[in-house]
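Hi team,

Below is the intake form for CCDC93 coiled-coil domain-containing protein from Ilex paraguariensis. Please confirm the fields before the structure is written into the shared record.

FORM ID: S-0412
PROTEIN: CCDC93 coiled-coil domain-containing protein
ORGANISM: Ilex paraguariensis
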Amino acid sequence: MQEEDHREQVTCTEFSIEDETHSLLQHQEEFNSIKSSISTLSASLEELNKKKADLLGRMQHLREKISKEGAEMLVQRLLSLLESLKALEKQESDSQLHSNVQRSQLQAEIDKLGEIILSDNDGWSFSCGIDDSLHSSVEKLNSAKTELAAKLREIVLLKRQLDDVPSQAELIQYERRFSELNVHIQGKLRQTRKCYATYNALLEIKELMLKETSLLNSISLQFQDAIASTSGRVKLIDSMDGITKGIQQKLEKAHLAQQAELTVCDALKEKYAAAISEQRRCSSLLKAFQEECAKNERLRSHTSGILA
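The structure came back. Fields below:
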């Protein structure tokens, strides 16, 4: 008997050891599985951190490009409008979900009223319940319509604001039209200045011819009386000397005006040369601006894709 008890104890001990061993193996497998899961999660976390750092770097690079291009305010406004539009769309979907929930509730109430109709024999209580439910439903419906109309107005306003933001093609078209208008205005200005200069020159010639005609008429009328006496001849000679001096002064004045005009002409030639070089520089800047506009459009589409 003692040997049998001892054998049973040994057998029980062996079974316990086997159970413990099996449990230990299970725990070891679970530990290995958890360890592999931790390794997988660590690798995924590192990959996510790398993606996050890459995304942050790209966003920073995008912000720097936007700041350099001088369109930060426009992009900020566009981003805010896009975020507002997304928020309103989310609110619209929430409102739709809320409406579905309310419809389900109303359907449940209708089913409940149907059950009341089948189970209730008192017509007065049923009529009162119907009136209350109808009144509450009408109020909820009117409130929902008001909220939906307000949300739709906000969405339409945001879409109009987005449509008001000019695109790259519109900016290029505006720039071309402004350039054409500037060329037309400059041509009209040059033509007007030329007409004024011609008018002033002809007016001055007219005044000189009138003075010359008046002088010749005066000499013709007084010549015979002047040469009849010695004093008359002296006065005539003195008068002619005065006229000659006046003409000489006018000639010097005209010469000075001509020199001033030549100086102005040389200055205008220099300005013209500078304007030609400035036009070339502006053409290069315009080409660079168009390229930057194309980059900005690509960045805008990329930003929209990121926000979406």
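SUMMARY LINE: The two ends are 82 Å apart (CA to CA).

Thanks, M.
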